[in-house]
């Protein structure tokens, strides 16, 4: 009876797609978006994933150590050529408002005894990037939050200035809470309503069409390579997609915006770093009306 049952039993169809179907652009993007729901990928993730052991830290997938013995090559690049590192996982907070009000409140979370401050002339002009240690408001030398780097947007003639503060993702929530407290930014400037459910349904439909067993691709997927894949990665590894990303103070007019994963950040190390930048970036010609 067992033998007859096995003979008459229908052969189960394989659930795995062929490589050609898996490598279609629309299917790749849908699969990549699905895998980024818990841990965000950097722009260089694919390149690193092929060459590095990846680890999941601070809500991101990061390259930890190379799969090959490339330490000598990296050292040679740093000492004689140019080595590039992807630091896009660092968090960026943007402060917008009057320069005097920004400096007045920022002076409460740093100290001149530790070195540079936000008021340093070379940094305030926007020509150089500065670095310092932040503390809780009026608590120096206690209550240290952590090291940050900052850069001012050059003046354009008005009192309104923009300041970008970069920090490690492990420090973001504490620093953001302290900045919101000293600037009294409690109300969201703009309520952002994400669409993760709609995106997920669309992605699932795309995957269901391809995964349908024993059937050809239906009308929804007939466009093939011409179809525009849905890519809607909202938020980042340190922020929930349902949370606000911008806050405003009704008393001071200061606006705090979370620009994490919106601005890419790369670090170039080596004597040829400037040569690489000059060859890569070309200055645009000024056009006067």
TrEMBL record:
Signal peptide: none annotated. Pfam families: POP1_N (PF06978). GO terms for cellular component: nucleolar ribonuclease P complex; ribonuclease MRP complex. Residues 4-97 form the Pop1 N-terminal domain. GO terms for biological process: tRNA 5'-leader removal. It comes from the Eukaryota. This is POP1 protein. It comes from Chordeiles acutipennis.
């Amino acid at each position: 009876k067992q033998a007859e049952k096995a003979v008459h039993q229908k052969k189960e169809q394989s659930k795995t797609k062929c490589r050609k179907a898996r490598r279609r652009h629309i299917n790749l993007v849908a699969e990549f978006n699905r895998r980024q729901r818990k841990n965000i990928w950097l722009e260089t993730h694919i390149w690193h994933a092929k060459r590095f052991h990846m680890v999941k830290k601070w809500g991101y997938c990061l390259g930890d150590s190379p799969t090959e013995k490339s330490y000598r090559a990296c050292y040679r690049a740093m000492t004689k050529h140019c080595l590039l590192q992807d630091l896009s996982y660092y968090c960026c907070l943007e402060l917008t408002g009057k320069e005097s009000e920004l400096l007045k409140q920022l002076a409460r979370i740093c100290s001149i005894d530790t070195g540079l401050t936000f008021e340093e002339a070379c940094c305030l002009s926007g020509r150089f990037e500065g670095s310092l240690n932040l503390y809780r408001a009026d608590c120096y030398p206690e209550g240290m939050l952590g090291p940050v780097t900052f850069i001012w947007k050059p003046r354009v003639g008005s009192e309104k200035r923009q300041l970008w503060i970069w920090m490690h993702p492990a420090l973001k929530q504490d620093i953001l809470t302290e900045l919101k407290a000293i600037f009294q930014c409690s109300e969201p400037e703009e309520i952002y309503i994400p669409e993760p459910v709609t995106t997920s349904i669309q992605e699932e439909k795309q995957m269901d069409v391809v995964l349908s067993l024993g059937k050809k691709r239906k009308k929804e997927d007939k466009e093939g390579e011409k179809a525009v894949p849905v890519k809607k990665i909202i938020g980042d590894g340190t922020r929930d997609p349902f949370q606000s990303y911008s806050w405003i103070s009704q008393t001071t007019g200061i606006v705090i915006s979370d620009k994490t994963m919106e601005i890419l950040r790369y670090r170039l190390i080596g004597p040829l770093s400037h040569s690489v930048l000059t060859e890569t970036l070309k200055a645009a010609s000024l056009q006067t009306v």
